[in-house]
Amino acid sequence: MLRTIDAQTGALLWERPVPERWGHVSVVRAHPVVVFTAGADEGAPRRLVVVGGGERERAIELPRWAEEFGGDVAVVGDLLAVECVGPPTPYGEEDTGSTLNAFDVTTGVLRWTWSSTYGATLSPLAHRGHLVVLNGYGDRATVLDPADGRVVAERVLPGHSYRARLAAVGDCVAVVCTAERSVHRLHVFRWK
Fold it and tell me: Which of 1, 139, 172, 189 has the fewest C-beta atoms under 10 angstroms from its C-beta?
């Protein structure tokens, strides 16, 4: 069962059964509700499903070449951006082949893709009407126009944050390192 609950009151907003065809289900975003589904059968398509109250849903099929998706999705207006990770190289470089894919939330159609020239894209984040992604393995922030994926700005971030994630509030952007080694764990920058 998929349930949405009011965070202030705890009241049930809506619920609906999870269709068996979805197989394994993980909630990846709360507003709008986005779930990742991996069908029960070997080779079944993997999808992101944007779910509304009642029976409304929009399935977005992830590219077949993507061995996994980054786990974070960002929504700006009617655009959903997700990192898709390709197969590893023969040398085991985990992030080779990462591409940011932007889909229309209403139709599920792929609008544009973007690949970093500085290493893997990580943690797409919606902030102030733009998409912000980390690349260069966390030492560069790139701001993208959600309409067409065009680079609006880039900034080098001091410090190294391998396997980094982004968070933002107001005019602050935080880069959090999730690697299992001793590196600086948190850097906070002013949005300019």
Answer: 1
